UniProtKB/TrEMBL annotation:
Organism whose genome encodes this protein: Biomphalaria glabrata (Bloodfluke planorb)
InterPro entries: CWH43_N, PGAP2
Gene Ontology annotations for the cellular component aspect, listed alphabetically: endoplasmic reticulum membrane; Golgi membrane
Name this protein carries in UniProt: Post-GPI attachment to proteins factor 2-like
Alphabetically ordered keywords of this record: Membrane, Transmembrane, Transmembrane helix
Domain of life: Eukaryota
Every CWH43-like N-terminal domain range: 19-244
Extent of the signal sequence: none
Length: 279
């Protein structure tokens, strides 16, 4: 039998998934799928996935290229679908976690904090939605739409990482446990890495599209992979924030009445009855 924080007790538990296997499987789905798509595409479809708009030599295919060819696209779409479902759940977990930490926030920041955690939720939600859409609308099928979805994904991803890192710090009010310190450190490292890679991606994209510089698209693609795996690493830090939690499926029952309160109430009722009889 398990207790919830404020709702009651959970009985007849039919499913109990600890956070560690949940986090590993969720992050591994796109991570392993992307690796398999890259390796197989480079080995068996090198010329096809390295084709560029400028017709310049390229040796590192983009993520869109290796996940947009068949049969790799089937693997990629399947893994993203399986990955995105629990990610939507984590959006809600993160929001509720920050709500529960509101008591630790400095009073002068509390109103702003409560507003920003809502913004944080929607940034995370839109990021995950765009990841799903960009997997199902490939650059080969509809490049203009694919490109726009990718841009929204990048913007919301960066904004979420920055805001989430700030909120994580605010919700601890400078009082960090050892696990909190590790989580906060890796959040900052991952954000700094993805911000640097994004700058490289933008610069190389301009060099490729405007000046058709040889090798620029390879740099662009390399930055894409850094961004992808850094993004996965950042989201994996949620394990540190929820590592003592589990997914439970069972029956939620209200807390039983406190025995002391019940005894006091019974004594009071008996005294009232005795007084009534005396009268």
């Amino acid at each position: 039998m398990a207790k919830t924080k404020s709702k009651g007790v959970v009985e007849e538990i039919f499913l109990n998934i600890p956070m560690w296997p949940f986090a590993v499987v969720t992050v591994s789905l796109p991570g392993v799928a992307l690796f398999v798509c890259f390796v197989t595409a480079v080995i068996f479809q090198f010329d096809d996935v390295n084709e560029t708009m400028c017709n310049v030599k390229n040796f590192i295919p983009s993520i869109s290229a290796v996940t947009g060819v068949t049969p790799q696209t089937y693997l990629w779409r399947t893994c993203i679908a399986l990955h995105s479902t629990p990610r939507f759940a984590v959006c809600l977990f993160t929001y509720n976690h920050y709500v529960s930490r509101a008591h630790s926030v400095h009073p002068q920041r509390l109103a702003k904090y409560m507003f920003l955690i809502k913004v944080n939720f929607w940034l995370n939600f839109v990021e995950n939605s765009c990841l799903t859409l960009v997997a199902y609308i490939t650059n080969r099928e509809n490049y203009p739409i694919h490109e726009k979805i990718f841009v929204v994904f990048m913007v919301t991803s960066l904004a979420y990482m920055l805001l989430n890192t700030i909120l994580f710090n605010w919700s601890r009010a400078g009082s960090f446990s050892e696990t909190d310190r590790v989580s906060y450190y890796w959040k900052k490292v991952m954000f700094a890495s993805i911000a640097t890679a994004t700058a490289g991606l933008l610069a190389s994209f301009i060099l490729h599209r405007v000046y058709c510089v040889v090798g620029a698209f390879s740099v662009f693609s390399a930055c894409e992979y850094v961004i992808a795996y850094t993004n996965m690493g950042y989201h994996f830090t949620a394990y540190l924030d929820f590592k003592d939690r589990s997914f439970l499926f069972g029956r939620l029952c209200p807390y039983p009445r406190n025995n002391n309160e019940s005894s006091s109430l019974a004594v009071t009722n008996n005294n009232v009855k005795l007084k009534n009889k005396a009268h």
